[in-house]
């Protein structure tokens, strides 16, 4: 499998994991793909291109309710950015994202179709620079230990196994009261239905 195909599969797997985890936690999430931004504090105005980014929680609620989403996106850094690499990482990127105000970064690396994922969850707004975490800050209760397995399930379209894994991991986390029929809660329900019915290409799965 060539690196570009593997890269697409990894990014798609991450989309499934974040969307389903946020849905189970009943946390609003707004995803962004191929985020382009500049770290104006860096030498030469370093250009950053995240493979994926998310507004999560309060920022997602504000963005979904905003009349001028473009202006809000321009002034509000995402809560989570993800870098997926099949060759190498730019070791300076965590610092650049931290300077932009991003809360958390996931670094996902796998150099072949048969190798397991190597994953780091980094807190970016910490004293002394980025720090590796055992648990996500933006998705409370989400352990870094289960992230490689969750991504593997997402890539292989093992949606039932993914949902069971996340349910087991997040079952002790305090969650908001039961959803009402608000637009945000309807998005949660639709997200779970979509994930359970589509593969990583976005094609509908034919059930027998």
Describe this structure in words.
The radius of gyration is 17 Å and the shape is globular. The protein contains 7 helices and 6 strands; from the N terminus they run αββααβαβββααα. The protein has a single domain, classed as tt1808, chain A (Alpha-Beta Complex).
Rg for CA atoms? 17 Å
Largest sheet: 6 strands, mixed
Strand content: 15-25%
* Broad shape: globular
Structural class: alpha+beta
Terminal-residue CA separation? 28 Å
Low-pLDDT residue spans: none
What is the correct CATH architecture? Alpha-Beta Complex
Mean pLDDT: 77
Number of folding domains?
1
Order of helices and strands: HEEHHEHEEEHHH
Strand adjacency order, main sheet: 1-2-3-4-5-6
**CATH level 1 name:** Alpha Beta
Helix count from the secondary structure assignment: 7
Helix fraction, binned, reads 25-40%
What oligomeric state best describes the polypeptide chains here? single chain
Tally the beta strands: 6
CATH topology, which one?
tt1808, chain A
């Amino acid at each position: 499998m060539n690196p570009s195909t593997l890269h697409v599969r990894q990014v798609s797997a991450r989309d499934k994991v974040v969307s389903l985890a946020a849905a189970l936690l009943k946390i609003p999430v707004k995803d962004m793909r191929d985020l382009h931004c500049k770290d104006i504090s860096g030498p030469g105005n370093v250009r950053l291109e995240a493979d994926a980014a998310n507004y999560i929680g309060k920022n997602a609620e504000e963005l979904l309710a905003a009349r001028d989403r473009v202006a809000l996106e321009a002034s509000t850094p995402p809560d989570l950015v993800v870098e997926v690499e099949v060759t190498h990482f730019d070791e300076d990127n965590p610092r650049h994202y931290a300077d932009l105000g991003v809360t958390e970064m996931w670094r996902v690396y796998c150099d072949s179709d048969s190798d397991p994922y190597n994953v780091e969850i980094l807190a970016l707004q910490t004293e002394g620079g980025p720090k590796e975490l055992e648990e996500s800050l933006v998705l409370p209760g989400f352990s870094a230990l289960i992230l490689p397995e969750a991504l593997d399930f997402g890539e292989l379209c093992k949606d039932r196994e993914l949902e069971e894994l996340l349910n087991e991991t997040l079952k002790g986390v305090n969650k908001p009261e039961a959803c009402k029929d608000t637009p945000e809660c309807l998005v949660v329900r639709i997200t779970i239905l979509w994930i359970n019915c589509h593969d990583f290409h976005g094609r509908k799965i034919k059930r027998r």
